[in-house]
Amino acid sequence: MDDQEDIFNFAKDEYEMNESHDQVIGSTKNRKGFLFFKRNGKPVPVTFVKVDGVDGKDAASRAELIFFTTYGVSDEVVLRPQRPMFIKQKHFAKIPDDIEMRKGVWCICYDRFEPLKHWTEKVQSDEIVQYDDKVKLPIRTPDDCLQDFWRISIRNLIHCVRRIHDKAGLFHGGLHKRSNFVFVNKKLKVINIEGSLAGLSPPEQDERKKKDIMDLRKMLRGRLVSYSNRKFKNFDFS
């Protein structure tokens, strides 16, 4: 399936043949695809975020935890997931049995987004044609101030993390990773909230909160780039 039309046709055909499941997925290697619901049959553009097992917790348990934790946060800066899913490739019998998609992977299904990580990689690419994004670039204005998009986005992220801590009683635990930040409708949002402050002592809660803020600061200062005078350079949010 090399293009979006192939994805659509694959999902549509599977949907028409499937009599027992509510949704059918067509997905590519970049985890983009469509979700079908039998109640209306309309395709919903989505992105599938793979979940691995870590620290003795299996992928299925983590996917369920991330889904319910993230879905439970009502905040405009948090992208709420559609559902957790176990995905297997049913077609193409010639694919070896040990390939990941034949064995199956656990994913969290979100509304279609552009990952921050992919965006920064495009910005830093050496392609002849410069990456063009007038909403987000340049990051700094000619007088060396933050462009409005980034100034507002950073402020919203900081407030969002505080609300996750104080209102939801949660912590993120992965804000140092660009993979947990995405663009949706020209807004920067957070995905994959996993930690709960419940059951932790006050000092432990404070430590988790502090780490989230420091991780966010580290990601913003060290992982983003600016575009200036046709050159890419490290960007400092200080």
Describe the structure.
With 238 residues, the protein is an alpha+beta fold. It folds into two domains: 4-112, Phosphorylase Kinase, domain 1 (2-Layer Sandwich), CATH 3.30.200; 115-234, Transferase(Phosphotransferase), domain 1 (Orthogonal Bundle), CATH 1.10.510. The protein has helices at 4-17, 59-71, 100-103, 116-124, 148-166, 202-222; strands at residues 25-27, 32-36, 43-51, 83-87, 105-111, 114-115, 170-171, 181-184, 187-190, 195-196, 225-228, 231-234. It has a five-stranded antiparallel β-sheet with strand order 1-2-3-5-4. A hairpin with a 2-residue loop joins strand 8 and strand 9 (187-190). Helix 5 packs antiparallel against helix 6.
Summarize the structure.
34% of the residues lie in helices and 21% in strands. The chain has 238 residues and is an alpha+beta fold. Residues 225-238 have low confidence and may be disordered.
